[in-house]
């Protein structure tokens, strides 16, 4: 086994959902980060309730011995001029650099349906034209250089309801971007929700995987999403996603592959659910125990 160093983080989306404000709208930032620390995590990603003032945020996180590992950034490379995207991206990177993060996760949202509550996620998924693929890949290479100049690594977050969802689309993205500038944010849950094998992507693109999201899928809810033509957000509200160990994804080979190949970086539990149905602290503690029992971390 190669030497590895894994740090464990959790995303605030299990407490408050930025895309669905009604989920966890009553849960304050302080409760969210306190419960993250109580559950045994040392890092987190960023939600809309987090203080924008970096000094305030550092103080709040420091009291709980938490650090920022990443924050989502929406690109619109297929629908906006590149210069506009880069301006916002550079500001985002400055924030992450100030907070001590080393990773920035991006996802192309031009023509995305992930935020449309009445559009079936499987039936209406967007597909890039060749021109759009060129815009996305060339733009990501340029943004990757911007991130690099600011001490960050750009990772691409494949996502349900977007133009880069399937394993074939992930393959095309990786094959069409600079491996020195664009990495992959591997998300077990989104690949499983898409109906494909997370291990295949993990093994094929391991050298490009610079950030990991651990998320499980309830197979019976995924089947309902197809049958009832749920949107992505309807799937979230109805519990398609859950914490590692609570669904159909087999995490033991995922953990073994990452450890055997010497992965160094963050594993992030990211399991968006309705906190009224899935108590965030309880599920965070269950996820932490599962990772300890299954991966020894």
Q: Determine the CATH topology.
A: TIM Barrel
Return the CATH class. Alpha Beta
Mean pLDDT, all residues: 96
Give helix % range: 40-55%
Q: What structural class do the secondary elements suggest? A: alpha/beta
Termini distance? 15 Å
The counted number of beta strands is 11
- Record the strand order, biggest sheet: 3-2-1-11-8-7-6-5-4
Sheet with most strands: 9 strands, parallel
Low-confidence stretches: none
Give the CATH architecture. Answer: Alpha-Beta Barrel
GO molecular function, one term: isomerase activity
Domain Xylose isomerase-like TIM barrel: 36-286
Protein name: Sugar phosphate isomerase/epimerase
InterPro entries: IolE, IolE/MocC, IolE/XylAMocC-like, Xyl_isomerase-like_sf, Xyl_isomerase-like_TIM-brl
Descriptive report:
The protein has 297 residues and is an alpha/beta fold. The chain has one domain: Alpha-Beta Barrel (TIM Barrel), CATH 3.20.20.150. Helix content is 41%, strand content 16%. The chain has helices at residues 29-38, 54-63, 82-98, 130-149, 167-175, 188-193, 198-205, 219-227, 232-237, 251-260, 280-295, and strands spanning 5-10, 43-44, 67-68, 72-75, 103-108, 153-157, 182-187, 209-214, 216-217, 241-242, 264-269. A 9-stranded parallel sheet has the order 3-2-1-11-8-7-6-5-4. Strands 9-10 form a two-stranded antiparallel ribbon. Helix 3 (82-98) links the parallel strand 4 (72-75) and strand 5 (103-108). Helix 1 runs parallel beside helix 11 (280-295), helix 3 (82-98) runs parallel beside helix 4 (130-149) and helix 7 runs parallel beside helix 10. The longest helix has 20 residues, at 130-149. The two termini are 15 Å apart. The model has no long low-confidence stretch (mean pLDDT 96).
